[in-house]
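Worked example 2:
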Amino acid sequence: MNKHQTLPGNSESRNTMPLKRSTFAAPRFTRTALAATILGAAAILSGCGTNPDRMNTGSIPDDYRTRHPITLTEVEHTLDIPIASGDRELTIGMSDAVGGFAADYLASSSGTIQILLPQGSPNAGAASLMRRQIRQALIGRGVPAPRIIETSYQAGASGDAAPVRLSYVAITAVTNQCGQWPEDLQANTFSNRNWQNFGCATQANLAAQIANPMDLVTPRAQAPIDATRRSTVIGLYRQGKDTSSN
């Protein structure tokens, strides 16, 4: 027998063959597991893309600006001037109030302005006497005389001082009425949504601060430039000097 021949039952042969199997089988197993992991991750991601979560709490369509929109509408603006039975002329406070009302009228309306006098009240005589002063106060603040209309309204015969009312109509930025609570706040706990009245006061205050309602429709025209100031700034810039304080 050749001493270099390896018998089938030899321990060397048994140790060699399994070593070769493990050497080649390990890479195949690793590649297979990696491929399966990638396919599994892709399946999970595709599932998220095709089946979005319906409990989408991060983007609930619950904007208070949509629920309480600011709109432009025709609104009656009024000023009630209390007149006592013994009054014979406007006080300084009354004159200032009439002047402010006239300024608001000129800024927002080009229609008529009404002076409504009470009839049938204890102060009806004093109100009729002071209507001329109110009219002159309006004219003195720039209101054209043809736009002023005098009329009357029926007041009660009680002891209350029926006011002289000034009134005009103008396009005004407004929002819907605040203070509406149609739902129970406790019933809205799990839905994570704002209640009905949320944001209404903010929108109402913003609408009240809009001096020119047309600013919500279109921007104003650009004001003319200050040629003198522009020339000064360019000259300082060319000299390398500060342009903000000169």
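Residues 234 and 240 are 10 Å apart (CA to CA). The two ends are 114 Å apart (CA to CA).
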